[in-house]
Amino acid sequence: MSKVAAETRIAERFADWLSNETGQPQAITRGPNPPDFLLSSGTWLELSNIYLNNEEAKFDNSPQYKTFSINCSPDQLAFRLLQKLDEKLAKKSYRRIYQQRGKGILLLTCQDFFFDQVNLALAREHLTSFHPTNDQGFFKAAYFEYRLDGGRFYDPIYLRGLA
Is the N or the C terminus of the chain less surrounded, counting Cβ atoms within 10 Å? Predict the structure, then answer.
């Protein structure tokens, strides 16, 4: 599956979940990059994948990488989640879409093959003390998507004025 097709599948899945949560139907279209997608409700969606480490990302996204190793702290995914959240909140390249459509939604998707309850507990623990270093105010909400015990979940991890 191509990267664009995989991103579209993730965005459609999130739009379906958001539609059920809000009672407001959501459809997606590809965005001008940034953002990745536009939502029919008038807002926008930016996606970013979170991996345990760079080796896992290369393994998952490039056929030339046949293996990867896990040699890190159990907190590693939580640290990478916070780092990506902070990085995306600070990006100034969202200014144009923010001026056109207002605040958007950030979706950070867990792509770690070995994600479990321990990783989730550590991520939630670290999120309680998260303070962005340079939030530009372009996102009204950030969600963390993960799979656990056969289900898919969306945890709000950063909210700014979400109704």
Answer: C
Q: Which residue type occupies 81?
A: L
Query: Cβ atoms within 10 A of the Cβ of 47, count?
Result: 20
What are 130-157's pLDDT values in tens digits?
A: 999 999 999 999 999 999 998 999 999 9
Q: Around Cβ 92, how many Cβ atoms within 10 Å?
A: 10
Contacts of 159 (CB under 8 A, 6+ apart): 140, 141, 142
Is this model's pTM higher than 0.85 or not?
A: yes
DSSP symbols for 124-140? HHHHTT---SS--S-EE
Total of domains in the chain: 1
CA distance 162 to 9: 24
Could you list the residue range(s) of the whole structural domain that residue 107 is in?
3-159
User: Which tokens sit at 72?
Assistant: 């890190």
Stated length of the chain: 163
The enclosing H or E element of 14 equals: helix 3-22
Chain centroid to CA 123: how far? 13
